[in-house]
Amino acid sequence: MNINKGIIVAIALVLCLLDPNKALRGNTFESAFDTIIKVNDHFFKIKYLSENTFKELQQKHLIEDWMVVVSDIEQIQRLLGPRYTLDITVKEGADGHPPCYVLKEIRPRTGQPIVITKDSLAPVCLMKFFPKERILLCENHIGSDQAFYLDTWETAYNPELSSISPDGLYRIEGLYNGTTDRTNLLVGKKENDGTYHWMVSFSQFPIELRPQYLNKDVFWIERTLYYPVGWWNMDEDGKNKWEVSAYVAMTFPD
Fold first, then answer.
1. pTM recorded for the entire structure
2. How far apart are CA 89 and CA 101, in angstroms?
3. Which DSSP letter does residue 79 get?
4. pLDDT, tens digit (0-9, with 9 covering 90-100), for 172-197
5. CA-CA distance, 76 to 87, in Å (whole number)?
6. What is the pLDDT of residue 72?
7. Facing residues of 219 across strands?
8. How far apart are CA 88 and CA 94, in angstroms?
9. Residues 198 and 253 sit within 8 Å (Cβ to Cβ)
10. Which string of DSSP letters, residue by residue, matches 107-144?
């Protein structure tokens, strides 16, 4: 590196520290990252990829998640065993939709019942059980996800809309909001006690960096998340069509 180039690099680093939301561009940093974003005092490195580069990396690094998902209501009850009894009523679906298994409450073998559906006009339908995560996934009357940890009854996430970094340090937790074809995505960081604590929300990032949801195209390389950003647009035939606007590599803090 010659002296002039070294001065340019030094200036770029100083500008980055002063204002991390500014892009570091030019020959020096273009191959590493395009932008540094600061959110909640955390710094994320951003790199925009071509479609070909994204697909090539995806072929090498995409790992299918063999997630155990149970959607049969009777099987869910069997898996819960004698510890929990589900109070369920069946509400027939309208206009060809499947029936809703309204989860009124859950009765532990010991302790007080946990009321899930508090208003008959706003039923909460049991959808799936994730045995490994011990999460019950439900859907409320407007189509939004509601998820609960089976052992604590605290709000959980939808494992099918989530992703964990290879080292387990970061977990992106998704819940479908049911109204705008979007998923609320939170980033949790693993603490020493093994639990994940909320760190940032993707809604805090610039809109051009927000994925609508995490799908099968998402993958990790170490602590860098690779994902497409896109939108649902209506085509000439009036059908919704997914259009990718960018391919993003986001590197999480060390």
1. 0.76
2. 6
3. H
4. 988 888 765 566 788 889 988 888 88
5. 12
6. 92
7. 226
8. 18
9. no
10. EESSS--EE----TTS--EEEEEETTTTEEEEE-TTS-
